[in-house]
Amino acid sequence: MDPVDAPRDRTDVLLEAVVGVGRGLDVETVLHRIVEAAVSLVDARYGALGLLDADSRISRFLTVGMTAAEVAAIGPYPTGHGVLGQLIRHPVPLRLPDISAHVASVGFPAHHPPMRTFVGVPLRVHGSPFGNLYLTDKRGGGEFTAEDERVLEALAAAASVAVENARLYDVARLRERWARANDRISRQVLAGSSPHDVLTLVGSEAREVADADVTAIAVPDPVTGRLVLSSASGLDTEAQVGSVLAADGTFAALTFRTGVPMVTDDVTADDRASLALELSGELGPLAVWPIGQTGTSRGVLIAARLAGRPPFSSVVVEALSAFAGQAAVALELAEGRADAERVTLLRDRERIARDLHDLAIQRLYATGLSLQRVARGATPEMAEQLARSVDEVDETIALVRTTIYRLQSGEVPRGASARRVGLRSRVITEVDATAAALGFTARLRFEGAVDTLVPPDVAEHVVAVLREALSNVARHAHASQAEVRLAVGRDVVLTVSDDGVGIPAGVARSGLLNLARRAAESGGVLVVGPATPSAVQTGTRLEWRVPMPDDDALGS
Length: 556
What we know:
4 domains, 5-stranded antiparallel beta sheet
């Protein structure tokens, strides 16, 4: 090879790398191409790109030259200490013949491959550093040269432009999705859809706009105030709608109470970022927004991505904050419609009561007087029959007057009154009440129309059975976690399971016999057995099941 051609070949490689980096419009693709191009340009064995957060700490670390297994063996990616932090604190190119000899070197973690030579350059957008390129171990055993450094600086300048273009493109696409989603949500709100349908739509649209793996909306129970999952999308969470979230100390609880959004790039870095839901993967970035204004929160909107995915950008946070506002509007409109329906109902009741009083009672009273006049000139047998008819008219007038009173006072039937404090709220209260005795709060899930379908007598049984079951867990199970599930379908099914020591042989089961009798009274059964038969601590699973009454039974 002619020595004069060498620089030209290097220039050609650089131009090819710049064109390749600039060809992508997706930010993730562009970032990976930058690292790959840098490794190729300077003939390095390993390359990495550290992206910086608002606090100038490494928030993401993309690597080239190591397998996924090697990366996993090393553990968490660096946050900006040692030589890597030197480039963050002083964003100028840095070239070292031996990393370990630098004064800022802190060594490598366990399972990290050995590295000696090093060169790093900052990446800037509009003059501000947003990340750094790190290259180590030049192939062939030599050191990185001044020319390597200049080539990387040239690549960094082109890469910064490519990253900015990709970011602008991503923002444009996101805002387009945001506009479409806003239109769909607004149409459903104005169409008068139910709050549940609107919240479900908000959650699914938020998941698409935010490119999240899971989204959820939780609203407070009207009696206990505990957050209950109203809608969920992604990672098999749809079946967990009705679950009760942790009572306090979580992002969801704090956001609901303070009205301040909570965002983290990694849920494992903050104990408050727990969702208390069964998920099919480990979470990474998590964000929670309040639904409504500070002090008047109506719930929370939650979005999360799987571990290893990029954190939520400021544009995504802005978009989902607007979605949370739309959810608040939907709930307010629903309450307004409910108030209007109640006013209409009261007006109808007043009209019906007035008509019954002015028309029906007067006609019945006149009919009774007519029957009495006829009875005075009738035979004894006929007079006795007419007298009974007059008594029946009087009873009918009394019933109509009672109905008028109920219509005017807003009185509801006894069965509905008994469910003013819903079964859902009573179950939540029982679970919260046993938290101190258990040493933790049991997970809670509802399925089906618990408040509207379960008859009052069955509801009383459910509360009593739950109280006894949780008391047994607290006194005997030595458990570290427990779950309560109440499902309503063809049957009412209450399940209480724990991870404790199980039920030893020979232990008196008087409490369980009482629960079995309660099930038998309603035509149901009680089944108690190990929760996980194959485990060392089998735990206990109690299932109390009774059939739902048929319509005739409910009507009687």
